[in-house]
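Q: Predict the bound structure with glutamic acid.
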Amino acid sequence: MIQTRQDLSHVQRAIVKIGSSLLTDADTGIRMQMVEHIAAQICAMQQSGIQVCLVSSGAVALGRVHLGWLGKVLSVHEKQAAAAVGQSWLMEAYRQAFAHYDVQVAQMLLTKDDLRHRRRYLNASNTSETLFSAGVIPIVNENDTVVVEEIKFGDNDNLGALVALMVNADLLVMMTDVDGLYDANPQEYNDAKRCSVVHELDHDIMAMAGDSASQFGTGGMLSKLSAAEIATRGGVVAAIVNGHQQHVLNDLMTGKDVGTLFLCGEDRHSRHQHWIADVLDVAGKIYVDAGAAEAIAHKGASLLPVGMTAVVGDFDKGECVEVLADSLVIARGLCNYNSKDLSCIQGLPSKNIEKALGYMDFTSVIHRDNLVLTPVKPFHLMI
Ligand code: GLU
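A: Predicted complex:
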């Protein structure tokens, strides 16, 4: 288990996520020097026995350049078209850079749907295993042409975390253009300090993120923290490092004090909980009173109909719903009843379910085993 920077020397499999702002230039397209710099470091990791998978953004940004769509606000379909054009430029750059080391690369385009469907998930994970054994570097991006905003991973930081869990990696490295997480904005405050190791992603840490995204990618520091949260809860250590820094991956892997390292806490998600918390789509909302919120959040209780105050959405039994108290999402879970039946039993003691519905399959609305508390959110997003 990785508990210190020095333990990173035990990593066997790593995901390295690279953002658009590192790789692309608004005027000239791909930054070939950066791609070569990354390829050199990844090949050195591979030489030292670590299996590496890249998650790379850049398709939309490169597509913009090659289509002459700079500075234009793109519609969803234009973004998808740009991604389709840019993805081949992106892969060509990686292919050339890794060819210097005689290393093959493989393109893997995934959607969130692929991770939700058992067979497709298994296919993707088996393919990556086969690529790792063949010494090939898988390069993952979202399959932008077939997804629209609502069903996207959100950003490639999130995709990186989900891929890290899919391939059972030990480490997720997010390469960006800042040195790590700072306790204040380093561009505004001279005395801002970099956090070297984060043991727990609590409110204070989340509040350091700010909410600005960089110019080219969709992710900012906040999306990196949320990816670190998903990864560390699933048992994968995460790091944010500056991709411009020479040998930064080697420095990280040899225990030097670079970037910010996020260690895994005690409180881990099982695969089932990860599925509910990070992968499934939310089909509806259930509002609960203060007593139910307290019982769910602090007493390990299931959600009972008596604590429900409202049901929003049209969903089936078994679907994933959010549980809210005072408009704050406190948990997610798999529902034992459909939305119509829930509206009939809301506020009732469980012993009255049968009378209200004519049947009673479960005494709870969401059983504790299918309920996952929501991770901390930065204060400015809570309001
Ligand atoms: N898939 C997008 C691209 O390759 C990037 C999404 C992101 O960076 O978050 O351009």
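A: Residues 19-20, 57-61, 83, 141-142, 144, 155-156, 217-219 surround glutamic acid (CB under 6 Å).
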